[in-house]
Amino acid sequence: MRVLAAMSGGVDSAVAAARAVEAGHDVVGVHLALSAKPGTLRTGARGCCTIEDAHDARRAADILGIPFYVWDFAERFTEEVVETFVGEYAAGRTPNPCVTCNEKIKFEALLDKAMALGFDAVCTGHYARLEVVDGRPQLRRSADEGKDQSYVLASLRPEQLRHAMFPLGGSRKSDVRAEAAERGLAVAEKPDSHDICFIPDGDTRKFLESRLGESPGDLVDAETGAVLGRHTGVHGFTVGQRKGLGIDKPAPDGRPRYVLSLEPVSGTVKVGSANRLEVTRIDGERPIWPSGCPLEGPTECVVQVRAHGGTARAVAEAADGEVTVRLREPLSGVAPGQVAVLYRDEGEAGDLVLGSARIAATA
């Protein structure tokens, strides 16, 4: 099988490519240039997709003895990921750019080009398991619970998963690093990137202000309606946020305040106590069913609303292009714009991805 290995310059994608080669596939490595002006060096785990990363990917491909190319996807990445990210924050929502990147770049733009060039599959270093049962793809959690990335892949459609390979799904990260060292890959001990790749300094508020400017508004107590202060833009906040609110006086009960809701039209940021963050219902829009099987009637499941954490048992129901999720126990800090991923209910945590939807509202 002809396989295009997406090589980020990190240890995971390098080992995934090595395993594809070892499995006997005809493998070609490709590094995606996602920035028109990439930094020359990263700082520890800050950022990715730098010139240094491209060099690391090329060195890994050389050791594996496979052809290697750099493809310029900077314009597409800016349009699909960066501008979407900025626009969602301006609208008072909290997006996950990694979900968007996987959906629109790695498994749409990249996969489309790979298929046009005659490749059969795209191989990545994601930690998720992929099986085919009765001709249908099934996306499952990784064997390494701490590294599981099924959440950020749950927006992929069946036709995309049919041409995807995740060789690391059954492995633990420590074993992957050990394997990289045994193979002589210099990236064996390279730090993982934990930040939004296009905000390498980690300062999301500063990045958004540089794009959106200032749009002052009021910080309002959700219970009393009292104005507690001013802010420079709703894009500087997200539901559940506690720090950086800019409120001088404490709450009457002395407890911390949290962001409860954002109103971009009026510029109002409502704040209140932690208990007001709890929700028991999630309304989702634009559902995607990775296996091609929509929910049939009320379905017991586990819902996850953040890439790491934020899970609860629930009952989900789909109708008319929307999903209603009723939680069996409340969740806190659930923000519109996030993605709700539904897993088959198997007790404490689900395993099989049933579907995903963008969170439109909560109650």
From TrEMBL:
Protein name: tRNA-specific 2-thiouridylase MnmA
Principal location listed in the UniProt entry: cytoplasm
A Pfam family reported for this protein in Swiss-Prot or TrEMBL: tRNA_Me_trans_C
Gene3D superfamilies assigned: Adenine nucleotide alpha hydrolases-like domains, HUPs, Translation factors
EC class (word): transferase
Residues the UniProt record annotates as site (Interaction with tRNA): H126, Q338
Annotated gene: mnmA
GO cellular component term, pick one: cytoplasm
Residue ranges annotated for the tRNA-specific 2-thiouridylase MnmA-like central domain, each copy included: 206-272
Catalytic activity from the UniProt record: S-sulfanyl-L-cysteinyl-[protein] + uridine(34) in tRNA + AH2 + ATP = 2-thiouridine(34) in tRNA + L-cysteinyl-[protein] + A + AMP + diphosphate + H(+)
Single biological process term from Gene Ontology: tRNA wobble position uridine thiolation
Record-level Gene Ontology MF annotations: ATP binding; methyltransferase activity; tRNA binding; tRNA-uridine 2-sulfurtransferase activity
Protein location: Cytoplasm
tRNA-specific 2-thiouridylase MnmA-like C-terminal domain ranges (all copies): 285-359
Keyword Cell division part of the UniProt annotation: no
UniProt cross-references to InterPro entries, sorted A to Z: MnmA-like, MnmA-like_C, MnmA-like_central, MnmA-like_central_sf, Rossmann-like_a/b/a_fold
Family: Belongs to the MnmA/TRMU family.
Active site annotation, chain numbering: C101 (nucleophile), C197 (cysteine persulfide intermediate)
Highest taxon listed in the record's lineage: Bacteria
Residue ranges crossing the lipid bilayer per the database entry: none
Function as written in the Swiss-Prot or TrEMBL entry: Catalyzes the 2-thiolation of uridine at the wobble position (U34) of tRNA, leading to the formation of s(2)U34.
Region (Interaction with tRNA): 147-149
Keywords, sorted A to Z: ATP-binding, Cytoplasm, Disulfide bond, Methyltransferase, Nucleotide-binding, RNA-binding, Transferase, tRNA processing, tRNA-binding
Binding site for ATP: A6, M7, S8, G9, G10, V11, D12, S13, L32, G125
